[in-house]
Structure formats: C-alpha cells, structure tokens
Write a structure and sequence with these properties.
heterodimer; A: mainly beta; seven-stranded mixed beta sheet; 11 strands; about 50% strand; B: five-stranded antiparallel beta sheet
C-alpha cells in the first residue's frame, strides 16, 4: 500500500501559468481533500470530495478548481497562478465507512512557488 | 465560528524534560479531536483520535487528553527524535477538519 501519493513534489511557476496537482490513494477511501499550508496559518481546506462524483468548497477555494476523476484520484488545478498561491499543498483521504470520525491520511505534499 | 488555537507556538526542551502542548477549541458539536505529528518536508502523520471529554490515549512517550474546551498532548521524558510540529484538529461531523496552527517542538540532546 502506497497510501496517498502526490505529484509533482516541487514546482515553480510564473504568474499566470496553469498547472494541475495530482493525488491518488489506494486505501479504497470515499472522501478526499486538498489543503494548503502556509507558515503560521496551519492547514486550510481548499476543496473536498465526500464521494466519487461530488466536490465542495472549503475555506479558501478562490483561484482553484478540482476534479474527482474516479474513486482513487482527486486533482487540483490552478488556472492562472498568482504569487499568493505559493504554498505547500497536501492531499488527504478518509472514509472506509466504518466510523463517522475516520482518520484523514495525508500525502507527502507538493511545494509550489509562483514567481 | 469554529476556532482551534495551539500553544505555545514553539517549545524547546532538553532531552528527558517532560512538558505539555495545549490545543484549545471552540466548536459546536465536537465529534472528534485529532492529533498529528509533522516532520519537516513531510505530510502530517496521524497520532490519536479523542471522542469525548475525559478520554485519554497513549503511544510511547505521548499521552493525549481531552476536556470540553481543550486537549493536551503530554510528552514524558522526550528524546531528540520527538522533535516535530504537532498539529491538532477538530471534527464536527461535516466531512471537514479544522486545524490549529501547530506547535513546533525541539528536543535538545
């Protein structure tokens, strides 16, 4: 079991460029999440997908779009990157359906710099 | 608005010097409180889930406790390998976790 995997690990973009961050999980989880982590701010939820075919906004969705491609994969897209989107992005997954408070498991992160 | 506040922001201890990290929260309808450990350059790693006031959980040198307003992560006789950022998060049952900003713990040998 690889758990939650993310690609790429590092990325540098210029302002206005677009890119897609990829996330996949092999734990048969129903729910998947995208967070960003900035110094002193903790983890903030961008978007989440409670189940295949559904997506919802989190705390900081502006400037991002997501796609739940199938049960395993959840991608995050930046259509026109801005310096304010420089951050570390984490994907997480949870929900085997056995508990209402299933643990969220995190990927290793993508470190994005927008110049 | 739900809030999670962790204190202190940073803590430096000598090896073997026990201490506690605090996570205070204001959230309606708490369904669970999570503790994670995060090493530099890595994703958060799950430690504990606490569900109700009075509950305690232990793992090696770590013990987590929960009251109606706060949770503590007690570290007993820490070692340098316990150095990390510790995150707490609350769950209301709406599919979303709300995280605190973390406590950066450094254990000096």
């Amino acid at each position: 079991n690889a758990g939650v995997t993310q690609t790429p690990k590092f990325q540098v973009l210029k302002t206005g460029q677009s890119m897609t961050l990829q996330c996949a999980q092999d734990m048969n989880h129903n729910s998947m999440y995208w967070y960003r982590q900035d110094p002193g701010m903790g983890l903030r939820l961008i978007y989440y997908s409670a189940s295949e075919g559904t997506t919802d906004k989190g705390e900081v969705p502006n400037g991002y779009n997501v796609s739940r491609l199938n049960k395993r994969e959840f991608s995050l897209r930046l259509e026109s990157a801005a310096p304010s989107q420089t951050s570390v992005y984490f994907c997480a997954s949870t929900g085997t359906g056995t508990s209402v408070t299933d643990t969220q498991y995190f990927g290793p992160g993508t470190r994005l710099t927008v110049l | 608005e739900d809030q999670v506040t962790q204190s202190p922001e940073a803590l430096r201890l000598q090896e073997g010097e026990s201490s506690s990290l605090n996570c205070s929260y204001t959230v309606s309808g708490l369904r669970g409180l999570f503790w994670y450990r995060q090493d530099p350059g890595k994703g958060p790693e799950f430690l504990f889930t606490l569900y109700s006031a009075g509950e305690e959980k232990e793992k090696e040198r770590l013990k987590a406790t929960l009251t109606k307003k706060e949770s503590f992560l007690h570290i007993t006789a820490p070692k340098p390998e316990d150095s990390a950022t510790y995150l707490c998060a609350v769950y209301r049952g709406d599919q979303k976790l709300v995280f605190g900003q973390g406590t950066r713990l450094t254990i000096n040998p």
